[in-house]
Structures are given as C-alpha cells and as structure tokens.
Task: inverse folding
C-alpha cells in the first residue's frame, strides 16, 4: 500500500523581527512565492505497528527569495533574488534503491544497515546572492 501527502502554497512570507534596544525592527524576510510538497510512502503488504516503510520519497519544488532589512535606508534589500529550486529526498531499503534506479539519478546517498538515504538539490536557474556591507553589518 502507498500513502501520499501533498501541500501546495501560493505565497507565504515569513519576517524575522529583532527586538533592538526596545524597538521591534525587521531583520530578514523569507518569501515563498510558490511551494509544492509531495511525500509518498510505500509500506509492506502487511504493515505492522511501528513498521519501517519500504520507501519514502519527498519532493519539494519552490520559488523563494530572501531579503535583509537595511536600517540606514529603512527598507528591505534582496540577499537572495527569486530562485526556483527542487529538493528530492529518497529513503528506503538498498534493494528498493537499486530497483527504483535512484542510484543512477545523480543523488548523493548514505547507507546504514541496509537502508539508504539520498538527496538531490537542483535548479535550472542561476542563484543570485547580493552581499553588501549593510548585510554584513546587520549580522555583526
């Protein structure tokens, strides 16, 4: 049997606030412009309580941007410009790993006790980072 969880978010913004000298000032802002998360599990034919899934796969596709607040100009400035990414995480038995062909999929993996964990972060876009003196001062 298989189970599936799907989460789709149109837009989400998280702002971290710094309580500096009694004033609440923004520090950084993470914007998820779109996010799609899919998690699949394949369980043994006769699952028992506490059984380990034969295979778990999680795929996260998102467009994200990060801005840092510049106190001197009282405005957010981009640290990471809008960027599309795809993160894949695969966990399962070494037999499933070979059978599914995940081994040939360019995924970094680690194996322990017959279980394999594999990860892959990819993008078709250039990641643009803007590091300014104001950004460095905000973390110092």
Result:
């Amino acid at each position: 049997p298989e189970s599936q969880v799907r989460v789709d978010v149109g837009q989400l913004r998280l702002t971290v606030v710094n309580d500096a000298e009694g004033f609440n000032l923004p520090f950084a802002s993470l914007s998820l412009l779109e996010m799609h998360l899919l998690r699949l599990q394949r369980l043994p034919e006769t699952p028992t309580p506490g059984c380990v899934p034969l295979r778990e796969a999680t795929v996260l596709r998102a467009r994200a941007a990060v801005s840092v607040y510049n106190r001197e100009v009282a405005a957010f400035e981009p640290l990471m410009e809008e960027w599309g990414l795809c993160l894949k995480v695969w966990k399962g038995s070494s037999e499933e790993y070979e059978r599914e062909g995940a081994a040939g999929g360019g995924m970094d993996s680690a194996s322990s006790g017959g279980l394999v964990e594999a990860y892959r972060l990819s993008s078709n876009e250039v990641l643009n980072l803007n590091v300014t003196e104001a950004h460095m001062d905000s973390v110092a």
The longest helix spans residues 94-100. The mean pLDDT is 81.
